[in-house]
Design brief:
The protein is an alpha/beta fold. The chain is 37% helix and 18% strand. It has 16 helices and 12 strands. The strands form 2 sheets. Strands 3-2-1-4-5-6 form a 6-stranded parallel β-sheet, sandwiched between helices. The protein has a 6-stranded mixed β-sheet with strand order 7-8-12-9-10-11, sandwiched between helices. Strand 1, helix 3 and strand 2 form a beta-alpha-beta unit.
């Protein structure tokens, strides 16, 4: 049986390190590490009943696990997940049997998601004073839980979301707008549930773990205003591009003609509790443990990586090449770069990180890999979690009639990596704590 080359070993190790990061932040692992009586303002047996609602990529997996904990005290449940997720539930996560799971649109909302969001609001409004509304919050929840506010209609929001996602705006900026266009975000779900108590179990997919940004913060105070939302659209030159009803709605709010999202002083937060279950740091810790178990010296672990994806990939490779060593070495980064879309290609931010890195890696002399993947298993509008690159990636792409520079310019990373079989495909993971980038150098021996 032939021995693996140092380059092949580096590739397989990078993939294994990434998988270890994802596994640590899946619902069963996260919930098993908590005390259920800490999920809510009071111990769970103090409530007459518990209604469970969820929105986001982890909602189905979380609900299945929560059901097993709550037993008969759970009176109802409703969760919205992206289309196709119910068919890909990990074997480690039990499927819900009490709660209803429906599929909505992500990253753009759909009418099915609107109906689901309305059902969640109805669950909140129906909760009695002696009941608990347990809310399962994770990344993707904003699009999935879109219920248009005021006179807005779904096409207005779909167009606005689309423009924001292509603008290069940060998720903090994007959600400052989106929570002011819907009936769920910015603490509005907590307001709908009052006087019932609210417990929130949250998996973070945002840099800094700001709970008011995760899924647009449906159960926590909102620090942003209509005026902030208007400012974001102006800064990114979108004010004249969004539909007229959106401008009318936001302008009315900015001039005090619509109720603002509830802030820290609102009474609806007097009986709420939020618990952060997992974050990008949780995943990076698991990645470091996995790398060390494989004999790597972990040189650096960096959180909160942001910036233009292609530039991030180049910077990662430069860091790795400058830190060359005689022993197997690993670098880990986590965060959420952005892509300012100027081309017409197909790809995602992780694939663009890898392609940006591929060009910087061409002259590397040691077995080296940069892998960039979304922990949710979905990178942009593709079936891949991301991609990986090595010193021969650019040459292999050219041999497959793919010009790396042109593909990068056209935001067209997916076809290139597909042509050379370097896409990272995991399928939906039912979790989301942003991205994990794994860099490994494994000198030949």
């Amino acid at each position: 049986m032939p021995h693996s080359s140092p380059q092949d070993t580096a590739i397989s190790d990078a993939k294994a390190i990434f998988q270890a990061a994802v596994r640590r932040v899946q619902a069963d692992r996260l919930l098993d590490s908590t005390d259920p009586d800490a999920w809510a303002p009071r111990p769970l047996d103090h409530y007459d009943g518990i209604r469970v609602v969820g929105l986001g990529k982890a909602a189905m997996a979380m609900m299945g696990k929560v059901e097993r904990v709550l037993g008969d005290v759970m009176t109802d449940g409703y969760a919205i997940v992206p289309e196709g997720y119910p068919e890909h539930l990990p074997a480690s996560c039990p499927a819900p049997t009490v709660g209803t799971v429906v599929e909505g649109g992500h990253p753009l909302p759909t009418q099915a998601g609107v109906r689901g969001a309305r059902r969640i609001i109805e669950q909140a409004e129906a909760a009695g004073a002696d009941e608990l509304l347990l809310v399962l919050v994770s990344g993707g929840g904003t699009a999935l839980g879109t219920l248009p506010a005021g006179d807005l209609e779904l096409p207005d929001l779909t167009r606005t979301y689309y423009l924001l996602l292509r603008s290069g705006a940060s998720v903090h900026q994007v959600n400052a707008v989106r929570k002011h266009l819907t009936q769920m975000g910015g603490g509005q779900l907590a307001r709908a549930a009052a006087p019932a108590e609210v417990g929130s179990l949250i998996v973070s997919d945002v840099v800094g773990n700001d709970m008011s940004v995760i899924a647009s913060g449906p159960t926590v105070p909102s620090p942003t205003t209509y005026e902030d939302a208007v400012h974001v659209l102006y800064v990114h030159d979108l004010w004249t591009e969004v539909p007229t009803p959106v401008r009318t709605h936001l302008s009315a709010g900015a001039h005090g003609r619509r109720p603002e999202t509830p802030g820290p002083e609102a009474d609806c937060f007097d009986h709420t509790k939020s618990m952060l279950l997992g974050s990008n740091k949780t995943a990076l810790t698991a990645a470091q443990e996995a790398a060390e178990a494989r004999g790597y010296e972990v040189r650096r672990v960096v959180e909160e990586v942001e910036g233009e994806a292609r530039s991030v990939g180049k910077a990662h490779v430069e860091t790795m090449l400058q830190g060359a060593s005689d022993v197997p070495t690993c670098w880990l980064w986590g965060g959420e770069p952005t892509v300012t879309v100027t081309g017409d290609g197909k790809g995602g931010r992780n694939q663009e990180v890898a392609l940006g890195g591929a060009l910087a890696l061409e002259n590397a002399s040691q077995p080296t890999v940069l892998l960039s993947g979304g922990t949710d298993g979905i990178d942009g509008p593709t079936d891949a979690a991301g991609a990986w690159t090595s010193p021969d990636t650019a040459d292999r792409a050219r041999a497959a009639s793919c010009n790396p520079e042109m593909h990068l310019e056209d935001n067209d990373s997916y076809p290139l990596f597909d042509a050379i079989d370097q896409l990272l495909r995991t399928g939906p993971t039912h979790t989301n704590v942003m991205d994990v980038h794994v860099g490994v150098v494994r000198p030949g021996v």
